[in-house]
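Fill in residues.
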């Protein structure tokens, strides 16, 4: 299996599982939605559906444009949930015990650009930093 295919399959698994969790167990996700986002429960449900749709789009092999659209969608999704990850860190660190701490949250926030890049690369939207 080639690196792009491995990355694509990994992303499909991660996003499909995350999407199912958003739908089946929305509570933890709703609790970290920033206060300025309207209808948090609805947003969490819609993001779960978006993750599942993106995973399905990346998985299919019959349409490169659809696969690329899924890559764009999941990259945009990863960018859009960054504020929720930041909100999660702020909520967690405010707990008396410090929650999961910076050891968990800082790498998670720092890894977000990779989650933006990976679906674009895996679906051949971009080649950076590699050449064809």
């Amino acid at each position: 299996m080639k690196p792009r295919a491995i990355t694509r399959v990994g992303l499909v698994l991660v996003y499909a599982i995350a999407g199912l969790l958003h739908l089946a167990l929305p509570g933890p996700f709703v609790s970290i939605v920033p206060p300025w986002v309207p209808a948090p429960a609805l947003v969490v449900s819609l993001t779960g559906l978006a993750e599942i749709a993106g995973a399905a789009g990346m998985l299919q092999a019959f349409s490169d444009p659809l696969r690329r659209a899924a890559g764009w969608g999941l990259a945009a999704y990863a960018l859009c949930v960054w504020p929720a990850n930041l909100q999660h860190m702020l909520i967690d660190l405010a707990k008396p015990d410090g929650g999961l701490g910076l050891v968990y949250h800082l790498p998670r926030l720092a890894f977000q650009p990779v989650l933006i890049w990976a679906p674009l690369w895996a679906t051949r939207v971009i080649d950076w930093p590699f050449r064809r």
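The chain has a mean pLDDT of 94.
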